[in-house]
Write a structure and sequence with these properties.
Blueprint: E1 48-49, E2 57-62, E3 68-75, E4 77-82, E5 87-98, H1 103-107, E6 116-120, H2 122-132, H3 142-149, H4 153-164, H5 171-179, E7 181-186, H6 190-193, E8 198-200, H7 203-221
Parallel strand pairs: 1-3, 4-8
Antiparallel strand pairs: 2-3, 4-5, 5-6, 6-7, 7-8
């Protein structure tokens, strides 16, 4: 009877060294030492956007030196900063819309660093209304005056002073507030830190990614 059936398959580990690779000319390198613990690699986290009503899932991983990494498997919220207003709010991540690395990461809704997502604009809209007394994304002009009439004169004077020195908001950003969705960029590493934090896109960066998204949309519909 053959002994091959009783042997268990050996699984190769993931290594981050370059000694096992060939030279640029194609020649093999001599194996002058074995693998080291500090050269090991692990399976990718492949953090996904949690479906509506689903729970986030973050797993702790014990790593070299007794430290702990937090491997996020599913996330649906993150802390995002609005740079021009110097304010940060926790917001819900609605969708993954662009990734420069691969369209498959958009298709599978993978949350990785530097991917472009759409977040809920409500927390920032509420802060703006409280700080400046102006309701963003409101199409009816009468709603602003109704909110202003409920405040005292000292509060109204404070809000007017804040609004006086404020620069005009970007038209593209204001349009997103009316839609209730803001474009944001993930700045943290969900597979390492267990969080999907980032910043709201605005200015030249927002203009750049809007062009990318429009070009991608037109390519999908067959337009030039």
């Amino acid at each position: 009877q053959s002994t091959w059936g009783s042997l268990k398959p050996t699984l190769m580990g993931i290594s981050r060294d370059s000694r096992h690779k060939r030279r640029a000319t194609g020649g093999k390198r001599a194996a002058w030492r074995k693998k080291r613990k500090f050269e090991l690699g692990r399976q990718p986290a492949s953090t996904k956007l949690a479906i509506a009503g689903g729970e986030k899932c973050v797993r702790p991983v014990r790593v070299r030196g007794g430290n702990v990494k937090f491997r996020a498997l599913r996330l649906d919220t993150g802390s995002f900063s609005w740079g021009s207003e110097a304010v940060a709010r926790k917001s819900r991540i609605l969708d993954v819309v662009y990734n420069a690395s691969s369209n498959d990461l958009v298709r599978t809704k993978s949350l990785v660093k530097n991917c472009i997502v759409q977040i809920d604009a409500t927390p920032f809209r509420q802060w703006f209304a409280q700080h400046y007394g102006v309701a963003l994304g409101r199409k009816k002009a009468g709603e602003e005056t109704t909110e202003a009439g409920k405040k005292s004169r000292s509060v109204l004077a404070k809000l007017a002073a804040r609004a006086k020195g404020k620069a005009a908001m970007d038209k593209a950003l204001e349009q997103q507030f009316s839609m209730g969705r803001l474009f944001a960029c993930i700045a943290s590493r969900p597979g390492q830190h267990g969080r999907a934090d980032g910043y709201v896109l605005e200015g030249k960066e927002l203009e750049f990614y809007l062009k990318k998204l429009n070009r991608k949309k037109n390519a999908g519909t067959g337009k030039a």
